[in-house]
Amino acid sequence: MSVALVTWQAPRFVTNVSDAELDIIRQLFVTLAAKYPRNVMRSMYFDAKMPLQPTGNIPEEAMRKIKAVLDWPEKAVSALAERSVFEGFVTPGGDQDPFDLFGILDANRFDLELPQAITSAYKHACSFITTTLGDTAAGEPEVLVMARSAEWSTAIWDKRRRMVSSALTVTETTADGQPSAMDVWLPDAVLSMTRRPSGSWVTERQPNPLGEVLIEPLTFDPQLDRPFGRSRITRPVMNITDHALTTIVRTEISADFYAAPRMMALGVTQDAFTRGKWQAAIDRWFAISKDEDGDVPTVQQFPQMTMQPLTDLYRMYATQFSGATGVPVANLGIVTDNPPSAEALFADDRRLVSTAKRQNRIMASSLRRVAQKIVRLRDASELTPELQRIDASWANPAFTSPTAAADALQKLSLVFPWLGESEVALEFAGFSQTEITRLLSDKRRGQTTNALSTLSALGKTTGAAAGDNPS
Fold first, then answer.
1. Domain range for residue 448?
2. Is the dihedral of CA 45, 47, 49, 55 positive or negative?
3. pLDDT tens digits, 206-230
4. 445 part of a folded domain
5. CB within 8 A of 386, min separation 6: which ones?
């Protein structure tokens, strides 16, 4: 899609909306147009499609011929997104499937949608999750849950109520990237807008039974003056990537000179290089005749250049990038001679793990509200105290070896003997939610079998005793 979105004109003629709603639509539209170019730029860096920045020292012809790419911005996003693994909704009572959410989440492929929404949030500062009643006659789930990219969505934040007051999501575009359909999310209605060829917009209203905007943002590092967060692909990240990419180009150009050392010949005739200087540099045998005065030519080689300074410069940019993002240098392709120890690996990941834990708590707040909206839409109910206590469960973002986890769990069980009977112990040991469910199911099955065996043995014993004493 083209960056030409900034030339969009806010809708002027919209049917079936009030003047106040039209003002909100225009405000949202202007915000979307203002944020779009920057979001597209971050997408280009994420996809390693950013253009080479001219340096003035490298000829433009060489810059055009060399196709260099660098995936560091993608690593800044994915390294953190991989540690935000959602395992499901839980309640203080420890229910496996509170409020029967599994069916709706599975119908919406939430296990596939949410990781994409998290990645998009880290890429563009935020993403959005919308919930609305689905058209079951058309094959949609009872409650439709969809992830929306900030590249084509925007919202207005209500600071007093700490929630979204209105939002806009583009759902369709024309071949040249102009919006042709979009949804506007308001507290009392959802407006489905379609653009006519004349430029006017036709609106279809759908009532909102909850009385609050059916959209929740997933944000990275929200702040008081930036409630929708900031991108992991920051200005320092883009600047460092530009310099590192230029270093790759310089290294590629220098490699050609490094492969063919420069030579100098004194006292040769003009036709000594009839086959060309490049051919003379790569020939295995090279013969030069005496000059017209009979003197033997002098051939010398300039000192061989080294690529070490460029390698050191690239390593320096990798260190700067690691400092700006928390991504370990080893993940950027910088290999050290001595493999790091387990303690060193833990120290390198410490900042990333801390950021992931903080982010999981932030996103859990939004996911709780998503779950609450799903239940309230499905059951046409109010927000109950039990529903308020629902929470999101995440996998441990830190890698812990099974041996270390088992040793720590054993020591904790000595202090807290009841810990071994808790599901938290299984989570601490590193089991996934699916594995925990299967383990508990096997445990219950084993307990049932043991109980039946005990009852059967007790029945036989009672019967034998009754046979020995007929009275």
1. 402-455
2. positive
3. 999 999 999 999 999 999 999 999 9
4. yes
5. 91
Its sign, for the CA torsion 230, 235, 236, 239, is positive
Q: What's the half-sphere exposure (Cβ side, CA atoms, 13 Å) at 470?
A: 0
Q: What residue ranges in 295-370 does DSSP mark as E strands?
A: 298-301
Distance CA 262, CA 259 (A): 10
Instruction: Tell me, yes or no, whether 465 lies in a domain.
Output: no
* Three-class secondary structure of residue 162 per DSSP: coil
Task: Give the up-direction half-sphere exposure of residue 270: CA atoms within 13 A in the CB hemisphere.
Answer: 0
Number of structural domains (the chain) is: 2
Q: How far apart are CA 426 and CA 409, in angstroms?
A: 9
Q: Quick one: 212 and 191 in the same domain? A: yes
| Percentage helix, strand, coil for the chain under 3-state DSSP, each rounded to 5 | 50, 15, 35
User: What would the pLDDT profile of 395-443 be if each residue is shown by its tens digit?
Assistant: 888 866 666 666 666 666 666 676 666 666 666 666 666 666 666 666 6
- Do residues 197 and 10 make contact, with C-beta atoms less than 8 angstroms apart? no
Strand partners for 128: 148, 217
Domain for residue 155, yes or no?
yes
